[in-house]
Design a protein that fits this description.
By secondary structure, this protein is an all-alpha fold. The protein has one domain. Helices cover 93% and strands 0% of the residues. It contains one helix and no strands. 0% of the residues are buried.
Length: 29
């Protein structure tokens, strides 16, 4: 159970990070 919540937390952080990266790429062009 702990492992699953840890994985989900990492996944959410990765998604937020990727979204920020996409926003930066859009702003540059």
């Amino acid at each position: 159970m702990l492992l699953i919540s840890l994985f989900l937390t990492l996944l959410l952080r990765l998604l937020y990070y990727l979204r920020e990266e996409v926003q930066l790429q859009i702003n540059r062009s």
